[in-house]
Fold each of these.
Amino acid sequence: MRPGVPPTWIRLFGAAALAWAACALAAEESAAFTIKDYETAHNHIVPAWSLSISGQWPTRCPPTLENIALDEHDLRIDARSVLELCERGATPFSIELNPALALQRGAFAPGVYRVSFYAADGAQSSPKLRAFSLLDRNLPNAPSITPETGFWWTSNGSDANRTTLSLELQDGQLSVALLSYDETGQAVWYFGAAPYAGHIAHLPLLRLAGGSVPFVQTSTAPHGDSALTLDLEFSSAAHASAWLTQPRESDATLQLQTLDLVRLPLADSSDGHAWQGEWVLLADAADAAPTRLHFDQYHAADAAHFQLVDSFANLTLTCTRKPAQPDWPPVSCALRGAGVSADFASVALTRMDGASVHLLRVTR
C-alpha cells in the first residue's frame, strides 16, 4: 500500500504535507529495487505465496539468482552479475520465486518475514544490500496489534544517543515523527505516514526544514526532502522492531540500521505502580457490558512478576515482566477472580489486548 496524505494533514501542514506526498511517491518510484509478495495457487505441492524482486540494474549485465537462505523469519536472497566490464546503462531486472519451493520445504510458518535482497556486480565482487522489505504473512484471523500513541524510545538505556519517535494511529493511518540529529550534530526531525493494517508499516520519511520560529509575524511554510525509509514491525502495543534505510549516493545501495523500540512510562517508578488506577474491561462480544476496575493495591511477587488488585471487585491482575528490563511494560498479564478469566499478550501503558478482550486505562 502506498502512503497517503490525509486531508487533515493538508490543513495542518499545508505545503509541507503535499511536499511529503510528492517526495514519498518519488522515493518509491526511484527506489532501485522493490520486493513484493503475491498469492499463488495453493495445493499440497505448491506453497501459497511467492516473491517478486524488480528494478533497474545499473549495467547491461543484470544479475541472476545465486542463493536463498532462511533463518527463522529472516529471508535473504542473493543474486550476482557474473560478467565483468559491462556497459553502463539502466537495465530492467526482475526475479520471481517461491521461497518455500526454492528451499525445498513445505509452506512457511505464518508471521512477518524480513526480506533482504543482496546483489553483487561482478564474479569477484562482494554482495551489497539493494532492497529490504517486511512481508506480513500472518493468517487472516491473527490478532491485530494497536500501537500505543505517544513517545517511543530505542530500548538501549545505556546509549546516550537514544533515538526518539512519536507515534499516533488514527483511522488506520500511522503517523511517525522521528527526532534525531544530522551529520553536524544539529537537531533534525523526520515525518511520515502510511496505512497500518495490524502488524507492519512502511513509511517514507520526509526531512522538514525552512519553517519559521513561533515569534515571527509572517510565517514561512517548511519544505521537505525525501530522506529515510522506516519499516516497523510491532510485537505488542508497546514494543516494536524498526529498520531505517537510506540509499548511498555513490551506488544507490542501502544503508540499514536496526532499532529496538519500546514505549516507556514517564513515572519515576520503574515497577508495576505505573499500572495502578482506573481501567475498563471490554470484550468484543456484542452483548458484553464494560466493567470498571480500580487497581488500588500493588504487590511485588518477585523480579519477574507483580500483581495489581481491585479489592472491591476481588480481581487480581498478575503481570509477567523481564527482570533484565524492569522499566519496560510487562510481557503479558492475566486477570483472574470473581468469575473473570482474561489473558493479555499485548501490554502497554494505557491498554492491554488479548483474544477478544481488552483493558483500557481511564484518564481523567
Amino acid sequence: MIPGGPRNQRQMELMMRRMGMKTEPVEGVEEVVVRTKTKEHVFSAPEVTILTVQGVRTYQIVGTPEVRARTAGPSAPGTASGAPSAPTGPPEEDIQLVMEQAQVSREEAVEALFRANGAPAEAIMQLMTRSR
C-alpha cells in the first residue's frame, strides 16, 4: 500500500523513477518453469516483468502455475540419466568478472572461484593479494 491513497499510472511511474526503479515487460513469454528437487511449477502464458532497483534485476511472474511432481525423465538437454545434472563450474559472468578485475587467465579465474566457494569478490581479493 502506498501512503496517500491510490494514484494514477502516470504518477506511479514518476514516483518509481524518482526512487530509481524501472519496470520493463518481457514480451512473448510462452512458459516459465520453476524446478525444485521434488516439484515443477509451470506457468503457461505468464506475464513477466523485470523490475530494476539500484541495478538489481528482479523478475516478476504473474499467472497460475500448474504444480506437478518432477518426472524421472531427463531434466536438461543432453542429460543421459534421470538425475539432475551437477553444476559444471562457476557461472560464466563470474569467471569473466574475475578475469577482468584480477587480469588473470580463465584457468586462474576458475581455480580462484573454486577456492573462494564461488564468491567472485573473494576470488578477486585472493588473486590481487597473491600477485603483490
